[in-house]
Amino acid sequence: MKRAIKKIAGKTLFTILPFVLFTALWKALTAISGVSEALLPPPENVAVSLWSMLAGGEVWDDIASSLSIFAAGWVIAVIAGTVLGVFLGWYRKIFDFLNPVIQVLRPVSPVAWLPFIVLWFGIGAAPTLVTVIIAGFFPVLLTAVAAVRHIDPVYFRVADSFGLGNRRTMLEIVFPAVLTELTSAFHTALGTGWIFLTAGEMAGSQQGLGYLIIDARNNFDTAGLVSAVILVGVTGLILDTLLGALERYVLKRTGITA
Asked: What is the pLDDT along the chain (258 residues), one digit of tens a residue?
């Protein structure tokens, strides 16, 4: 029992220590740099601002708004990317025909599409949702295509021998075979989608974490701006941790990992 407690305490200290050192460096920088607090707020100012935001209650509505839009966009991106990716991986000639266009569109940042997205969908939640979908779609799509192509052909010969047909082959061979690689792509889609969520919210949304950043900037509230950035980072970390736990649970339940 004591050994377990010491192990947990050691891990906790190992996790907290970098943040303590970063905060100390931040404090020292604000003290010796001579830069105005309006431009470089010290950590204690940010702590007060962050506490005020959390205690006030309104920020929870912004977090809920961001999470709901992100969840919808991420789910759509994952489903669309997986289904289309498996299809294109299965029908290689179609993918080879479309691949040049995909490779041209893939590197384009979702932010580059924002002017068109705002023109097409207006302001509010819709541009943010579309931005998240674009950000998460391509990583899942290309990973699914590559995963299907990397399946050992012997599995398909076995499927033909048993007369499984395309539908059963997809459900019983293809999807289990690509699940491990897809979970990694889902993680990537979560990261990119969350990053570009705030960019989408800055394009005209009246609620959300991105709106908090823009609102703080417009009011020249740098402590509030840093507080909003911290909330974005912490929320993203929590999402990533939860998805990782869900991923391990699913892979274990399906027998892919021990």
From this structure: 566 566 666 666 777 888 889 889 988 988 888 777 878 898 999 999 999 988 887 889 999 999 999 999 999 999 999 999 988 988 889 999 999 999 999 888 888 888 888 888 877 788 899 999 999 999 999 999 998 888 877 777 777 777 776 777 777 777 777 888 888 889 889 999 999 998 888 877 788 899 899 988 888 889 999 999 999 999 999 998 898 888 888 777 766 665
Place of tokens 């100390």: 24
Q: Decide: 180 and 174 in contact? Cβ < 8 Å.
A: no
- CB within 8 A of 253, min separation 6: which ones? none
| DSSP letters for 139-194 | HHHHHHHHHHHTS-HHHHHHHHHTT-HHHHHIIIIIHHHHHHHHHHHHHHHHHHHH
DSSP string, 39-76: TS--HHHHHHHHHHHHHHSHHHHHHHHHHHHHHHHHHH
- Statement: the pTM of the whole predicted model exceeds 0.90: no
Q: How many C-alpha atoms does 18 have within 13 Å on its Cβ side?
A: 4
R_g of the chain, CA atoms, integer Å: 23
Q: Look-up: residue for tokens 């929590």?
A: 238
Going by the DSSP 8-state scheme, the letter that residue 234 receives in this structure is H
CA dist 86 and 52 (Å) reads: 48
- A 10 A CB-CB count for 176 gives 13
